Amino acid sequence: MRKASDSERKEFERDFKLARPIKPKAAPRATKKSGGSGGLDGNTQDRLDRGLIAPDATLDLHGMTQERAHRTLSRFLTNAQQMGSRLIVVVTGKGNPRPADAAAWTQSPHGVLKEMVPRWLAEPELKRLIARTQPAHIRHGGGGALYVYLRKSK
Q1: What's the pLDDT score for residue 33?
Q2: Across the chain, how many H-helices and E-strands are there?
Q3: Is residue 32 a part of any domain in this protein?
């Protein structure tokens, strides 16, 4: 192994003093692939999860009977898709637990509509319109609302 000469050593020390550390590049963020997210690409799913997509419309089902809410939901989603809407927020409310002294069959941890809306959305008539459903971000209603991401109309 050869030893560095004095001039090489001085040149190295001068350059070493002038050198700045290289900032490590941030690792590229892994993007989610389509398929596991109900037909949405990874970027759309990520933005949806973080509540960054503004809803095109909101449907509030508070105070409706089951029959009326079901009819309204079906009509609303069909019309929204035909108009080109993509993200709909369906507000069901969280429901209220019953008092402890009520009959056991009336006690439920959440409201009837909160329980029924996901079932209705899974029915063939509505399922064909929908790319994805999931609980809404807190800024759009949180636990008392659902995101319904509609497929593009054909």
Answers
A1: 46
A2: 5, 4
A3: no
Task: Give a yes or no: residue 10 inside a domain.
Answer: no
Q: Is the CB of residue 77 less than 8 Å from the CB of residue 126?
A: yes
pTM of the model: 0.67
DSSP string for residues in 102-113: S-GGG--SS-HH
Are 115 and 64 within 8 A, CB to CB? no
Q: Which domain holds residue 66?
A: 59-150
Residue 35, both tokens: 């398929």
Distances (CA, A) of 112 to 61, 63, 122, 131: 11, 11, 16, 24
Query: What pLDDT score was predicted for residue 15?
Result: 81
pLDDT value at 36 more than 60: no
* Other Cβ atoms within 10 Å of 100 Cβ, number: 6
Q: Distance between CA atoms of 29 and 47, rounded to whole angstroms?
A: 14
User: In total, how many domains does the chain have?
Assistant: 1
